[in-house]
Write a structure and sequence with these properties.
The structure is a single chain. The chain has two domains: 151 residues, Aspartate Aminotransferase, domain 1; 245 residues, Aspartate Aminotransferase, domain 2 (3-Layer(aba) Sandwich). It is built from 14 helices and 15 strands. It has a seven-stranded mixed β-sheet with strand order 4-10-9-8-7-5-6, sandwiched between helices. The chain has a four-stranded mixed β-sheet with strand order 1-2-3-13. A four-stranded antiparallel β-sheet has the order 11-12-15-14. The chain is globular and about 60 Å long. By secondary structure, it is of the alpha/beta class. The structure holds pyridoxal-5'-phosphate (PLP). The site of pyridoxal-5'-phosphate has 15 residues, from α5.
Length: 407
């Protein structure tokens, strides 16, 4: 039996079956490449869902991680550590905001933002006790906690997990009129992904985010952007909301914030909103630990380099144009969209993206289907152009020759 089979069978036997991975077992990573246990090399067009934006095992990140791990590790927030304050300072100054709250996973940071919104709603806006409402968008993905699946519109994410949280509403993504109708005096916040990643790299219609922000301002509703996947240079701007010149009240970050090696997330935003938390209101043992802060500091320094951001923008435009040109008229293609190096190729539902993604693996290209019908292309932002071209050539070849099955 191959090593791959042995390891997969062991995982299937001993692990919970809450994922459906592509069948290969990775053992090494470097830059834009991944290697499996059989010694095969792949170009990473997946970027760990936007986590590996700096490429894998970036030397500066590894240097910081190992240096910090040998010096001061996890001491909890029972004490101050010397890495957290400068990290908070850098993060807030990059975002042009007052305060930040460190967490670990993306879902935890979104939960934190919604708790902030509820407490702000009751204590500042004056919404009656236990009556706060949060509005989200259809197709959203904010994470898997009970609170966040209560906002989800994906039946599988909710089924059998009830009772879900009350006070959660959704409006169609991109529909400002529906948002205007949905807002009531009890609305504390509107939360939106500037690009919906898990829904299949969905970009909202131009002007929607600005209109949503204006409505929030008009009705004293917090405007929260979830940039866990589309933020930190991924879209060709440091923050995706900068495409629309927005000033959100809270921004949620994660994934790439940990340099690809450590779970780090954060809520960044208005001091008077984050300031509603008092000691004991919220916390996390690992949040803001010295290793997280040090690694994330290096990650932020690298991700905020204007040359990296500008390159992601330029390379993304080139990749989008390449795919649109070379896949023009391809039988199975329904849409090609994205911003920066977050691109989706939507194919006919009769074929779905999974078989195409499986075939790309044979060509040495790794990615994953998103929302069943979208091939996600989100490589490290510093991928060499020749490797990106190689990956796009393979995508073109595989997608061009695919046919919609005759039923
Ligand atoms: C936009 C967005 N929000 C939140 C999350 C949840 O992050 P995590 O898986 O780290 O909890 C994700 C993960 O894919 C995401 O894409």
């Amino acid at each position: 039996m191959s090593k791959t089979r042995q390891l997969i069978d062991l995982e299937l036997d001993k692990g919970a079956h809450n994922y459906h991975p592509i069948e290969l077992v990775l053992t090494r990573s470097k830059g834009s490449f991944l290697w499996d246990v059989e010694g095969r090399r792949y170009i990473d067009m997946m970027g760990a869902y936007s986590t590996a934006s700096l490429g894998h095992c970036h030397p500066e990140i590894i240097k910081t991680l190992t240096r910090q791990a040998k010096k001061l590790d996890v001491t909890s927030r029972a004490f101050y550590n010397d890495q957290l304050p400068p990290w908070l300072d850098l993060l807030t100054s990059l975002a042009g905001m007052d305060k930040a709250l460190p967490m670990n996973s993306g879902a935890e940071a979104v939960e934190s933002a919604l708790k902030l919104a509820r407490k702000w709603g009751e204590t500042v806006k004056g919404i009656p006790k236990d009556r706060c409402e949060i509005i989200g968008c259809e197709g959203n993905f904010h994470g898997r906690t009970l609170g966040l699946i209560s906002l989800s519109t994906e039946p599988q994410y909710r089924r059998n997990f009830g009772p879900l949280l009350p006070g959660m509403k959704t409006v169609p993504y991109g529909d400002a009129k529906a948002l205007a109708k949905a807002i009531t005096p009890r609305t504390a916040a509107f939360i939106v992904e500037p690009i919906q990643g898990e829904a299949g790299i969905r970009v909202p219609p131009p002007g929607f985010l600005a209109k949503a922000q204006a409505l929030c301002r008009q009705h004293n509703v917090l405007f929260i952007v979830d940039e866990i996947q589309c933020g930190l240079a991924r879209s060709g701007r440091l923050f995706c909301y900068q495409h629309d010149n927005l000033t959100p009240d809270l921004v949620i970050l994660g994934k790439a914030l940990g340099g690809g090696v450590y779970p780090v997330s954060a809520v960044v935003g208005r001091g008077d909103v984050i300031g509603v938390f008092r000691p004991g209101d919220h916390g996390s043992t690992f949040g803001g630990n010295a290793i997280a802060a040090a690694v994330s500091m290096t990650a932020l320094q690298l991700l905020s380099d204007p040359k990296l951001i500008e390159r992601a923008d330029r390379l993304g435009q080139w990749a989008l144009a390449y795919l649109r040109k070379h896949l023009a008229g391809a039988e199975v293609v329904r849409d090609i969209r994205g911003k920066g190096l977050l691109i989706g190729v939507e194919v006919a539902p009769e074929i779905g993206a999974r078989p195409l993604v499986e075939e790309l693996k044979i060509h040495g290209i790794l990615t994953k289907d998103s929302h069943d019908v979208v091939i996600r292309l989100a490589p490290p932002l510093n991928i060499k152009k020749k490797h990106l071209r190689q990956a796009l050539e393979a995508v073109t070849k595989v997608v061009q020759k695919a046919r919609v099955p005759v039923s």
